[in-house]
Amino acid sequence: MTHKHKLQVKKHQFFLEQNRKDPITGDSIQENDTIVICAVCKSAFLEESWNYIGRQHCNQFSTLKTIPREDALVVRPKKIKYKRAKKVVNHERNETLRSIFILLAIVVPMGFYVYCMMNYIKPDDTTLLFIGAFLTAGICGVAILFIEDIFKDKMPD
């Protein structure tokens, strides 16, 4: 249930002296305004703003039944709950890395070799070194992933 409060100078003077603003509209909260106060963070919302945000704040629907007294109005910092990112399954990661290594080992050097042949460039030592480096890197990467798959039960995450 939403608890609404119509502000009056006689009853709520200490609250009005705080010169609060509605967090949604930025309008000043004044006498004769109807407000709703979040039960968790004690933010005061104009009734229209409360309805606009779906009658909930701080992931809950509770509102204060009464406007807190001056000595009871303690705003506690909101505790933030962090969600841990889901751990990527090693199998999915290995498949991605395996694809990258195969790309390095086969596609890049062969593409470069075909480019040389199409443009009548005779492969020299630098070209062969380039092709060999990519082949070696790719084959080693794939081999490491295969070894990791074999010993996956014995390896820490």
Describe the model.
Helix content is 44%, strand content 6%. With 157 residues, it is mainly alpha-helical. It has two domains: 5-72, Herpes Virus-1 (2-Layer Sandwich), CATH 3.30.40; 90-150. The chain has a three-stranded antiparallel β-sheet with strand order 1-2-3. A hairpin with a 6-residue loop joins strand 2 (34-37) and strand 3. Helix 3 (90-118) runs antiparallel to helix 4. The chain starts with a strand and ends in a 7-residue tail after the last helix. The model has no long low-confidence stretch (mean pLDDT 76).
Give a brief outline of the structure.
The protein has 157 residues and is mainly α.
Based on the model shown, name its key terms:
single chain; 157 residues; mainly alpha; Herpes Virus-1; 2 domains; three-stranded antiparallel beta sheet; 4 helices; rod-shaped
Topology:
Layout: E1 5-6, H1 9-16, E2 34-37, E3 44-46, H2 47-52, H3 90-118, H4 125-150
Antiparallel strand pairs: 1-2, 2-3
